[in-house]
Specification:
The structure is a single chain. It is built from 13 helices and 19 strands. With 378 residues, the protein is an alpha/beta fold. It folds into two domains: 171 residues, Rossmann fold, CATH 3.40.50; 184 residues, NAD(P)-binding Rossmann-like Domain (Rossmann fold, 3-Layer(aba) Sandwich). An eight-stranded mixed beta sheet has the order 3-2-1-4-5-6-18-19, with helices on both faces. Strands 11-10-9-12-13-15-14 form a seven-stranded mixed beta sheet, covered by helices on one side. Strands 7-8 form a two-stranded antiparallel ribbon. Helix 2 links the parallel strand 2 and strand 3. Helix 6 packs parallel to helix 7. 46% of the residues are buried.
Length: 378
């Protein structure tokens, strides 16, 4: 059972899918582990660290992936990488299937058994495999750090002999995993924090962190959460009422952090150009949804845009800006997933196709796209 860990080839991807710690545990499961040279460098992991853990180092992607039974990736492989995988290989990673059905079909055509870890169901047993939560947690933290760096002023109130510096006002839009971590981080740094979300359950969570909750709390708001715990698409009427409330609130803020995402759909537009321009010059907006179309009008992926004196931050791959920590957590997520595929006594691959986690994450099998959400349309 050969597990391969190639170097990520996307230019903005600094994470790696295995660490020396998880390599040791994969070997204990009966695997032989092969890592591409330099795969962990951006995360502070040297080839020698992998070798000490028991992995072998291959000089390039072709030799790394040759004959691999299981391939661990951060991002979906490109066409050139897919060509290197053997028929029947198991691919595990963040495969980003929404809107990329052709790429998923290409994996099926190549005979790859592909598992998209971001589709892991929100059940207790799967929490340790939840890549979205582990990475969003870091993104929320990093968003506040990036905002503070761009802001150019102190965040906490400071009482000095020269006068009092007021605390910065930070507004977090979206109180999922990333938003809650952003709130907690901003509070730790001494800011005055407010937050909003369309899910009723978020109010108690926001207030438990010492922030004030801002939302139109009508009947629709009370029904605004899916059974899976995600935000439900709201009506245009509600969006209008919420936008009016937010517009009045946002103009008083120093920093705004947006985190709202709806699985399988473009990011909802929360902050209009008029709202951006209502902020004081020197204010900062961080859009964590920029790679999904953005919550903020005028935000650009991979750029810091200046609009009427307001900095709109749209960094790519925010978890990857904390590469060492992100890789540590992500590798543990993947290890936990791999453990579901292995018979520990026989030390061999044994997939239970009736398992809830397997059914939720499997995209392709035996040359076909099998996930019902990504079936090709006639």
């Amino acid at each position: 059972m050969l597990v391969a860990v190639p170097t990520e080839i996307l230019p903005d991807e600094s994470r790696v899918a295995a660490t020396p710690e998880t390599v040791k545990k994969l070997i204990a499961l009966g695997a032989t582990v092969r890592v591409q040279a330099g795969a962990g460098v951006a995360s502070g992991i040297l080839d020698a660290d992998y070798e000490t853990a028991g992995a072998t180092i291959a000089p390039n992607a072709a030799e790394t992936l040759s004959g691999a039974d299981i391939v661990l990736k951060v991002r979906r492989p490109e066409e050139a990488e897919i060509a290197l995988l053997k028929n029947g290989a198991i691919l595990i990673g963040i495969l980003d299937p929404y809107g990329h059905e052709d790429a998923i079909k290409a994996l099926a055509t190549a005979g790859i058994l592909a598992f998209a870890t971001e589709l892991t169901p929100r059940i207790t047993r799967a929490q340790v495999m939840d890549v979205l939560s582990s990475q969003a947690n870091l993104a929320g933290y990093r968003a506040v750090i990036d905002a503070a760096a761009e802001y150019g002023r102190a965040l906490p109130m400071m009482m000095t002999a020269a006068g009092t510096v007021p605390a910065a006002r930070i507004f977090v839009m979206g109180a999922g995993v990333a938003g809650l971590q952003a709130i907690a981080t901003a509070r730790r740094l001494g800011a005055i924090v407010t937050a909003t979300d369309v899910r009723p359950a978020a109010k108690e969570q926001v207030e438990s962190l010492g922030a004030k909750f801002i939302a139109v709390e009508d009947d629709e708001f009370k029904q605004a959460e899916t059974s899976g715990g995600y935000a439900r698409e709201m009506s245009d009427a509600y969006k209008q009422k919420q936008a009016e409330l937010v517009a009045a609130h946002i103009a008083k803020q120093d920093i705004v952090i947006t985190t709202a995402l709806i699985p399988g759909r473009p990011a909802p537009r929360l902050v209009s150009d008029a709202m951006v321009r209502s902020l004081k010059p020197g204010s900062v907006i961080v859009d964590l949804a920029v790679e999904r179309g953005g919550n903020v009008e005028g935000a650009k992926a991979g750029e810091v845009v200046l609009i009427n004196g307001v900095k709109v931050v749209g960094h790519h791959n925010v978890p990857g800006r904390l590469a060492a920590t992100a890789s540590t957590l992500y590798a543990k997520n993947l290890l936990a997933f791999v453990e579901q595929l292995i018979n520990k006594e026989a030390k061999a691959i044994a997939i239970n196709w009736d398992d809830e986690i397997i059914k939720a994450t499997a995209l392709t099998r035996d040359g076909s796209v099998i996930h019902p959400a990504f079936q090709p349309t006639a």
